[in-house]
Amino acid sequence: MKRYRVKPGAKVSLRDYDPDDTGDYKDRAQAEQDLAGDLARMADLQERLYAENQRALLVVLQAMDAGGKDGTVKHVFSGVNPAGCEVTSFQAPSGEEADHDYLWRVYRAVPRRGNIGIFNRSHYEDVLAVRVRKLAPKPVWRRRYDQINRFEQLLVENGTTIVKFYLHISKAEQKKRLAERLANPNKSWKFSETDLHDREHWAEYQEAYEDALHLCSSEWAPWYIVPANHKWYRNLVVARTIVQLLKDMDPRPPRPKIDVSKVSL
Ligand code: ATP
Ligand code: MG
Question: How far apart are CA 189 and CA 206, in angstroms?
Answer without folding.
Answer: 25
